[in-house]
Specification:
Layout (H helix, E strand, L loop, with lengths): L4 E3 L11 H10 L5 H21 L5 E3 L7 H8 L5 H4 L5 H10 L1 E3 L2 E3 L4 E3 L6 E3 L2 E3 L9 H12 L4 E6 L1 H7 L1 E3 L3 H22 L3 E5 L9 H14 L7 E5 L9 H6 L4 E5 L6 H8 L6 E7 L9 H12 L7 E5 L18 H4 L5 H15 L8 H14 L7 H8 L12 H12 L16 H11 L5 H22 L14 H6 L2 E5 L6 E4 L2 E3 L3 E8 L5 H9 L6 E5 L1 H6 L9 H21 L4 E5 L14 H16 L7 E6 L8 H6 L4 E4 L8 H7 L5 E4 L12 H15 L17 H22 L2
Parallel strand pairs: 1-14, 2-8, 7-9, 8-10, 10-11, 11-12, 12-13, 13-14, 19-20, 20-21, 21-22, 22-23
Antiparallel strand pairs: 3-4, 5-6, 15-18, 16-17
The protein binds glutamine and zinc ion.
Length: 764
């Protein structure tokens, strides 16, 4: 039988029980020393490598581990550490975290670097900044350590490195001499290859996901010029050019002719990769790492489909050189279904988390090695399993399907138009100029979390639980009274996660106990699984919003999660189109909106934090996505009264290129992140005549740092200069759930004071 090899592109790293998160937090609280953190992290990492080795994975990744983020790791590997961090009198690890989270201690006060979403995932990376204070040179300690410590256990690994091209495209250049900086980066990679070779590394995996986006001629030139230099002397290394999240149609022919030894292609999301190989062939003497195991969804692999791809590949690629691989890193799926004790075995059998995907790789390798695999028991069982799900009628809701079929254009249009509504709402709500608000959540304190945990465990009754939530709300209202906020929020104390909370009250969703996925740094989320048709089961947020509103005469914002975000932050089913799932969720949330309105809530925020992140990487596919995403949002609010003010919120500011679509959502107001990105979006808004009222975040909530009043005033004044006062709101850039009350109150006080002063200065 042929020996087929298997590879894993990257593995989760936060720990099955989120151990790494907890250690890092203890380290910040001073409960764990730096050395203890490093030791613990190393043990976690090596245990995982051992597991992959026991599972017989031939190409095991190293350096895919991270204390915070792999792009930040790459920046540090290139010594790209701007002077404000270099200047801190703390350890290298301290500086690393300062870049990630900001640092405010002992008189020092530096902001964190910006964070952005990693391609179309819900993972955030840190944006490296290359200014004239950085001295680019190789600092290979981390990849070397990770390789060596695994080797000491007897495990050969392939170091995973973010490729120079992707790195250059992601980094922010603030230097006058970009070309010199790029050359230094190239030199560092050349140096790195030398070090790897001297250590005895056999294969190095260069991740270049940037190859799957639309590439211009100059991008291709840049890629070539970078790798012609780096590959000039490979020092005997096998260099794997790894790509994922799509196909490499713009550069396939170029890269196969270059001096790489192996290529990693994604056959799950990379629609055209197979055609590219069919059309242009594949070099006989090179390896193909065929990504057929989905690294972004949790359903069991469809062996029939995967083997069909592999069989086709066999006609074009030397079969000896086909390595079966994950389509991307497994960072985006949870650890193992074994941690789930509450789901039936029938349901769990439909899922493959990271560890189960390792078994799937092994199953596929066995099957692929056989000519008559179709009669194999493993194969047959898989077919039966997939069929079983497809034929399960219990998850079809005919009523919902009928409603969707009967939607007409009118269901997507709100009347009257935005300007008319603005006037009506302005009078009705009686808000001052530069109204202040927050994005929804307030600090999730230990008491808040304990309340939920105790209720879940059955230690307190629903009445006690509700009573406690009401106490938290009362306190939050009191704080907002004291701060003089204009539009209140109730604080979201009943929510663990904004998607999970809604999903729990909708049919068609399945929840896990431990299926955590890293979202950024120490933050993890537990995405629900959309299993069947979706419908609202009962009023969700209405009772708390109504209670909160009863405590104040100020408008209390109803707080909902939008359909696109619920969809994008869940693991979707794959048997019906995403648009259909999205509309089903939209109808459910619509019921909630109308219910809030009926119960006296005058301002309703529908968060679409995840709308941008699933925007396809290729422009040619944007329309299809935006058409249903924007429509779904409009469907949610199209039938509210003119005087009800609809807000939305987005956690990012890179919507420069879809501004018109954001305006088309037809919300009355949108808040978004702006502070970390230096207010760049404001120019775009101005240039495009953006009509929706805006609340660009005036400070960054992702860091515990308290912004000064002056700083906030400067930000607001800049916003006024660009956008005028009429439709400007003042708010932080996201919800405050990850912060503590102390810093929150100080920051908000500075914010409301800043607004008061500006109103006085400008006579508003
Ligand atoms: N309303 C949510 C909150 O404040 C919004 C969170 C988000 O945008 N991610 O927590
Ligand atoms: Zn946000």
């Amino acid at each position: 039988m042929r020996q087929v090899k298997v590879s894993v592109s990257g593995y989760p790293r936060i720990g099955k029980q989120r151990e790494l998160k907890k250690w890092i937090e203890s380290y910040f609280n001073g409960e764990l020393s730096e050395q203890e953190l490093i030791n613990n992290a190393q043990e976690l990492r090596l245990n995982q490598i051992k597991l992959l080795s026991q599972k017989g994975i031939d190409y095991i990744p190293s350096n895919d581990f991270s204390m915070y983020d792999q792009v930040l790791d790459a920046a540090v590997m290139l010594n790209i550490i701007p002077s404000q961090y270099q200047a801190l009198n703390i350890s290298p690890l301290g500086k690393y975290f300062a870049m990630a989270k900001g640092y405010q201690k002992d008189g020092a006060d530096v902001k964190a670097l910006a964070m952005k979403k990693w391609f179309t995932t819900n993972y955030h990376y840190i944006v490296p900044v290359i200014d004239d204070t950085v001295e680019i040179k190789l600092n290979a300690q981390k990849p070397v350590e990770e390789y060596k410590t695994a080797k000491a256990l007897g495990v050969e690994t392939k170091p995973v490195i973010i490729g120079a091209f992707t790195f250059v495209k992601l980094a922010k250049f603030e230097t006058i001499n970009r070309e010199a900086a790029v050359n230094k980066i190239i030199d560092a990679y050349i140096q790195l290859f030398k070090e790897f070779a001297s250590l005895g590394v056999k294969t190095v995996q260069i991740d270049e996901p940037m190859l799957v986006v639309d590439l211009e001629a100059q991008d291709i030139e840049l890629f070539k010029s970078i790798y012609d230099k780096i590959l000039k002397d490979k020092n005997g290394l096998t260099v794997l050019l790894n790509t994922y999240f799509g196909d490499i149609r713009d550069i396939y022919q170029v890269v196969v002719d270059m001096d790489f030894d192996a290529y990693g292609l994604d056959f799950v999301e990379g629609k055209k990769n197979l055609d590219l190989i069919k059309q242009y062939g594949f070099p006989k003497d090179k390896q193909l790492f065929a990504g057929v195991i989905n690294g972004r969804n949790i359903w069991v692999n469809n062996f029939e489909q995967s083997l069909e791809i592999l069989q086709t590949l066999k006609q074009y690629v030397n079969p000896e050189n086909i390595v079966i691989s994950t389509a991307c890193s497994l960072l985006f799926v949870p650890y193992t279904t074994k941690s789930e004790t509450k789901l039936s075995s029938e349901i769990l059998a439909q899922f493959a988390f990271a560890e189960e995907k390792l078994d799937e790789l092994n199953a596929l390798r066995e099957l692929f090695a056989k000519d008559d695999y179709k009669s194999d028991k493993k194969y047959q069982e898989n077919i039966a399993l997939i069929k079983q799900k497809a034929q399960n009628k219990a998850y079809i809701d005919l009523e919902v399907r009928e409603k969707i079929k009967n939607l007409t254009e009118k269901d997507f249009v709100r009347t009257p138009d935005l300007e008319t509504r603005f006037e009506i709402q302005y009078k009705k709500l009686g808000l001052p100029k530069l109204p202040t608000t927050t994005i929804g959540s307030f600090p999730q304190t230990i008491e808040v979390k304990r309340n939920r945990a105790r209720f879940k465990k059955g230690e307190i009754t629903k009445e006690q639980y509700d009573q406690n939530v009401k106490e938290f709300i009362k306190q939050a209202v009191k704080y907002q009274d004291e701060l003089g906020i204009d539009v209140y929020v109730h604080g979201e104390f009943e929510r663990n996660d904004m998607v999970e909370y809604f999903g729990e009250n909708l049919s068609g969703f399945i929840f896990t106990q431990n299926a955590w996925v890293q979202s950024y740094g120490t933050r993890c989320v537990k995405p629900p699984i959309i299993w069947g048709d979706v419908k609202r089961l009962q009023p969700i947020s209405v009772p708390y919003s109504v209670y909160a509103q009863s405590l104040t005469a100020k408008p209390m914002k109803g707080m909902l999660t939008g359909p696109v975000t619920i969809l994008n932050w869940s693991f979707p089913r794959e048997d019906i189109p995403l648009q259909e799932i999205c509309f089903q969720i939209a109808l459910a949330i619509k019921e909630e909106v109308l219910d809030l309105e009926k119960n006296g809530i005058k301002v309703i925020q529908i968060d679409e934090a995840a709308l941008r992140e699933k925007l396809p990487l290729r422009k040619s596919e944007w329309r299809q996505y935006l058409d249903y995403a924007i429509k779904a949002f409009r469907l949610v609010h199209s039938s509210v009264k003119p005087e009800t003010q609809i807000h939305t919120h987005m956690c990012y500011s890179e919507f420069g290129d879809i501004i018109k679509d954001i305006d088309d959502m037809d919300a009355d107001c949108i808040s978004f992140e702006a502070s970390r990105s230096n207010l760049e979006l404001l120019d775009d808004l101005q240039a495009n005549g953006f009509k929706t009222a805006v609340g660009p975040g005036v400070y960054d909530i992702h860091s515990p740092r308290v912004p000064s009043k002056e700083e906030i005033k400067a930000a607001i004044n800049k916003m006024i200069d660009k956008l005028g006062v009429k439709k400007l709101w003042v708010n932080p850039d996201c919800g405050l759930k990850t912060r503590g009350w102390e810093e929150t109150l100080k920051s908000l006080k500075n914010m409301t004071d800043a607004v008061k002063e500006i109103r006085a200065e400008k006579g508003l």
